[in-house]
Each structure stands twice: as structure tokens, then as C-alpha cells.
Amino acid sequence: RAKDEGGSEHCQYEPTLHVHAEERRKLEASLRHALERDEMSLNFQPVVDANDETVVSFEALVRWNSEEHGFVGPDKFIPLAEDTRLIIPIGTWVMEQACIEACNWPSHVRVAVNVSGEQLIEPDFASTVIGALSKSGLEANRLEIEVTESIFLRDANVARAALEQVIALGCTVALDDFGTGYSSLGYLRKLSFSTIKVDRSFVQGAVQGSAESLAIINAVVAMAESLEMSTTAEGVENAEEAEFIRKLGCKKIQGYYFGRPMPAHDARQIFVREGLRRA
Ligand code: C2E
Ligand code: MG
Ligand code: MG
Ligand code: MG
């Protein structure tokens, strides 16, 4: 294992590297049993219409409460799951649970599920989606798949073909964290995305007076409009930011201001408050 991490001679002189690998090995061993031990759960974060502030969808966000490691954030275990292929069973579980929960919501409310590139290039990705839809009874048009631009870096054609299959089923695809990493406008032509999600860093930047961030949001909104795509601003944390973003023309807003990621039970209470019942 140490050899994989950069050569055994390295390890002798840099014990921290070894500790790091050991830590990772332990995390991986625990992650391998997380599903069967029932340690995974989903939180749901509301996305609201920028104009009337009603909930239009929830994004499903996976949580891991490990017996050995306590709460581990997705930013830490998702990359590990991707490296070890554990993202395949975990992703399938997330997809199913998200679809099952969405059946408890009013029928105009959709659910968004994050999908990694590793999942998309599995030959049976579309079958996984079909399975989750039929098992839950959720209509395909209520499921949105969220992907990042990174899926186009490797096996781009395979990933695109997989997404086209689920679009054919009636699902929609959103481009997540837009503007971070490997952004290229060319990616927007590769698929009919329904929504572009503007990364939180631009929202925060624009509110704090960054001319670059503001220019990028304006450009994304204009481009999305001409391509008949919707826009969601991520990471809106207060009323001032919400108003600012609404004026820029973003169609939907997601962020702590309108609701943090919350357990399924709490998400359902939002509809009780909005006076909506399951349709
Ligand atoms: P993401 O898909 O961009 O999800 C949004 C992240 O921003 C979430 O972090 C959410 O809690 C956080 N967030 C939302 N509103 C605000 C805000 O107003 N302020 C701040 N500071 N943060 C906000 P989370 O839940 O830690 O997830 C991190 C990332 O992990 C996600 O980013 C997504 O890329 C990945 N992830 C989460 N669940 C899954 C999953 O089921 N499958 C896959 N493949 N990836 C997942
Ligand atoms: Mg997302
Ligand atoms: Mg995002
Ligand atoms: Mg993100």
C-alpha cells in the first residue's frame, strides 16, 4: 500500500505520508461496510423559485455517520468512494432512497441527485435509474441528475451517452458547481442541460463586490437564457444575497437562507407549513 502512495523509500523519511495512507485504509475499510451497517442517510436541501420563494425541488445530499470515525463529510468520503468504486453501490442506494422519499412530496416538487463520473461510465447506469424509478413509483420527470464538468474530462462520450439515455426517460440533467475547475463553455453544447448551477464562490464573490464574479454570473444567466436553460444560484445565506441574486435574474435559489440540508422528516414539514398536501 505504501508503495502505491509514492514509493517505500519515501515512507521511511516521511512518516506522515504513512499515517495518511493508514488513515485512508481505515476509512476505506469502514466505508466498505457503511451501507450494510445502515450508517448512510440522506439530507434534503430546498431549492426555491427566486420570484415567489416557493420550494420547487430538494437536493439529496448523502451523510455518513461511521461507527469508527463519527460523522464524515461528503467532501472527504465521496472522493474515496470514487477511487475505490464504492460509489457504485452507494450511488445506487442514494438514487433509490431519494426517489422513494420524493414520492411523499407534492407532485410538482422534484428531487435532485448528485451523480459522479464513475457512476455514469458504468454500463448499467440507465438501468440503475430505471430501477430506482420503478421501485419507488416516481415519475421520471421529477428526477434531476446533477453532474459536474469533470465528467467530460475522461470518457466524455460514454458519460454523455449515459445522460442522453436518462434524458430519453424523461429525467433532466443539471450542471453543478458551474464555473469551478475545468469550466469551458464548450461543455454546454455537449448536452441539453435543463439547469446551470452557479457555484457558491461566485455568488459570495459578487455580493462582496467582486466585479469578475458579477460579470460571470451575468454572462451565465444571459447564456442560459439564450440556450433555454434555467439557472440556480448556490450558497445564498441571507436576505440581502437572495435579493441581489434575484435581481441578477437567476431563476432558482439554494442556500442556508432558505434551508439547510435537513432530514427527510423536516423536509416534509415545509409542505405542511406551505399548506400543501401530497397531490
Ligand atoms: P454540491 O452538490 O455542490 O452540494 C452543495 C453543497 O453546498 C452541500 O454540501 C451543501 O450543504 C452546501 N451548501 C448549501 N447551501 C449552502 C450555503 O448557503 N452556504 C454554504 N457554506 N454551503 C452551502 P455537502 O452536503 O457537504 O456536499 C458536498 C458535496 O458532496 C456536494 O456538493 C456534492 O458534490 C457531493 N455529494 C453530496 N452528496 C452526494 C451524493 O449522494 N453523490 C455524489 N456523487 N456526490 C455527493
Ligand atoms: Mg449538487
Ligand atoms: Mg453544487
Ligand atoms: Mg459542490
Keywords:
279 residues, alpha/beta, eight-stranded mixed beta barrel, 11 helices, 10 strands, 20% strand, disordered N terminus, binds ligand C2E, binds magnesium ion, EAL domain-containing protein
Task: Describe the secondary structure blueprint for this structure.
Blueprint: H1 8-13, H2 15-31, E1 40-49, E2 55-66, E3 70-72, H3 74-84, H4 87-102, E4 110-114, H5 117-120, H6 125-136, E5 143-148, H7 156-169, E6 172-178, E7 195-198, H8 200-207, H9 211-226, E8 230-233, H10 239-248, E9 252-254, E10 262-263, H11 264-274
Parallel strand pairs: 2-4, 4-5, 5-6, 6-7, 7-8, 8-9
Antiparallel strand pairs: 1-2, 1-9, 1-10, 2-3
Helix pairs in contact: 2-3, 4-6, 6-7, 8-9
The structure holds ligand C2E and magnesium ion (3 copies).
One magnesium ion binds next to strand 6.
Domain EAL: 24-275
Protein name: EAL domain-containing protein
Q: What's the multimeric state?
A: single chain
How many helix segments? Answer: 11
Q: Give the C-alpha Rg.
A: 20 Å
Please mark out the parts with pLDDT under 50 across 5 or more consecutive residues, or reply none. 1-11
- N-to-C order of helices and strands: HHEEEHHEHHEHEEHHEHEEH
Task: Please provide the count of β strands.
Answer: 10
Helix content: 40-55%
Distance between the termini: 54 Å
